[in-house]
Amino acid sequence: MNYPVIKSKNLRPYQICNCCVMDTTDEDIVFDSKGVCMRCNEYKERIEPEWNYGKGHEKELQELISAIKKSGEGKQYDCILGLSGGLDSAYMLHLAVKEWGLRPFVFHIDTGWNLLVAEENIRKVTKKLGVKLHIEKMNWDEMREMQLAWFRTGLEMLDAPQDHAFISVIDKYAQKLGVKYILNGYNVCTEVVADPASWEKGAGPTGDGTYIKDVVKKHCNIPIKDYTYTSGLKHKFAIPYLKGVKTIKPLNLVEFTKESMIKTLADEYGYVPYGQKHFEDLITKFLEGWWQPTRFGHDIRRAQLSSLVVTGQMTRDEALKILEQPSLSEEESKELFSEVAKRLEISEKELMKFHGMPECTEKFKSQEKFYNLGIKVYEKLGIEKRIRK
After folding, report:
1. How far apart (Å, rounded) are the C-alpha atoms in residues 170 and 104?
2. Could you state, in order of their start, the residue ranges of all structural domains in the chain?
3. What's the whole-model pTM score?
């Protein structure tokens, strides 16, 4: 099988940051006179001084833990934690239960794309910690059709059906349980550099039900009845400000590295690392490891590795060395390609047609301006600690 490559239509001369490994595959990247990109400068100016590698936040963390415990008095749970099977959420569960003594409502969303390594890691960690795992199993026929709908759009970011499901289920439990804290696994240490906005052209925010519903309306061939939707208004304002449910990111208040997370989880629970970030999920592994690089010329590892470079966990040369090789071998790529086509119940030829179709020019309804305004406000207030450009 031949795998054609569609390169980004970026007419700028190629340039790569002298500090991290972000480059002009991001059409909006800006470099200063020293060849350092705006993300590295923003990290040094806005993020690093306050974060301080997780050090010096002991009092803040203790006050937060005390507030969570007090809010949960007399209740079965004092917080909500979504467990994907990935590194960040597993480590946060370890800290929440073993180190902080919290009583989280732990849930996992099964969208039908789990890899065995994720399921095994989830089982090992929850069993040893003695926490009950609540599994939200999505309607597979709907998830399969929604995934096909996103392929039909020609968009680059095709994980929206899973991503929105996760956000909407969090919102559902936040309203149902009466718990006042949601533990979010985002952390500066491994995720400070977000995927470039220029790679998301045409797509709406994944938490935006308006966008999700419009794609479903235009590209789904069966009714979507069981899927749970949310909205930016509900997620960002109604639940936190009217219901008083706070989404917190406690990993930013403790000192750790990616390697120390892996070691702790492996030693304590027999946790098995799964390689590249997000590779615990079959469709995401396929999209980020093969689809995006070969169809759009974008390698998501640039953002992931740049996060490790700017936070001092890896040298730039080490990151460049990793980028010399593709995320997946040719053999593994072919296996994933076949498996994805099989699960979507289409032929490999049909899946390849999606790979070769023109990039999306279709317009979808969304609340993107509302989201962007909210991000700017959160940055001003010091709430948003991810570099988004």
Report:
1. 13
2. 38-366
3. 0.92
